[in-house]
Amino acid sequence: xxxxxxxxxxxxxxxxxxxxxxxxxxxxxxxxxxxxxxxxxxxxxxxxxxxxxxxxxxxxxxxxxxxxxxxxxxxxxxxxxxxxxxxxxxxxxxxxxxxxxxxxxxxxxxxxxxxxxxxxxxxxxxxxxxxxxxxxxxxxxxxxxxxxxxxxxxxxxxxxxxxxxxxxxxxxxxxxxxxxxxxxxxxxxxxxxxxxxxxxxxxxxxxxxxxxxxxxxxxxxxxxxxxxxxxxxxxxxxxxxxxxxxxxxxxxxxxxxxxxxxxxxxxxxxxxxxxxxxxxxxxxxxxxxxxxxxxxxxxx
Length: 300
Hints:
Elements: H1 2-17, H2 21-28, E1 35-38, E2 44-47, H3 50-57, H4 60-72, E3 78-81, E4 84-87, E5 90-93, H5 97-112, H6 118-121, E6 127-131, H7 137-144, E7 149-153, H8 157-169, E8 176-179, E9 182-183, E10 188-192, H9 194-197, H10 204-207, E11 213-218, H11 220-225, E12 232-236, H12 242-247, H13 251-254, E13 257-263, H14 276-284, E14 288-292, E15 295-299
Parallel strand pairs: 6-7, 6-12, 7-8, 9-11, 12-13
Antiparallel strand pairs: 1-2, 3-4, 4-5, 10-11, 13-15, 14-15
Helix pairs in contact: 4-5
């Protein structure tokens, strides 16, 4: 059934992005040996063989086309301005084409698709601890959905600077505070090679070394202790380090959160994505859980 659902989704994507989508289906079924694709953006792509087909539909040009066509369905909510994208009255900066599509992808998933389900998280009037704040997109989204404040942590200097720019751009300095810090299983120092310091896309867990720019590491226990008396919500997206952090966080600390959402990635040890260790951890701390795609939601 999952295969059928995926096939239907892929078919819908092709229909939504390709004008002569029926030619694509004929090529896929072997009825045509070469085709000229005309996209809904006006691009013309020659497909002469199977390799051309695979390279195009698995490449960045098609991924960007999907995002552009998706964006065009929400012209009333999304506007592209000079070096900024506006969505629901909030503004986000970008410098080049690569950053533009990275940002557009985030906006579509977070603001349009409600990736972080507000109905479950219930951020209204609460303090959101945003671990893996990235470019400030989720922090701004949570405040837009009536969070009292957001305290974010982003270890990558380039993303941290863009997050601060986006917060200032939206005049949310009084509601959002983002620290250039990593969150780990224990307090310490993270050393990032210079290449990673200026990268817009690296994740800290994959580029740490023995020398380079020093970024402080704080624990979830410490974060909670420095925010007493607040009603807390946790959002965590940290590229595979969520397993060791959660296993080294006390149940007493977790109990301070009303709700949590943790994105699961391939663990840093290279094993398959596993939900059970985190689900068991949350349930032992008194939470109910639900998995939606790669997100584990937990609430009391």
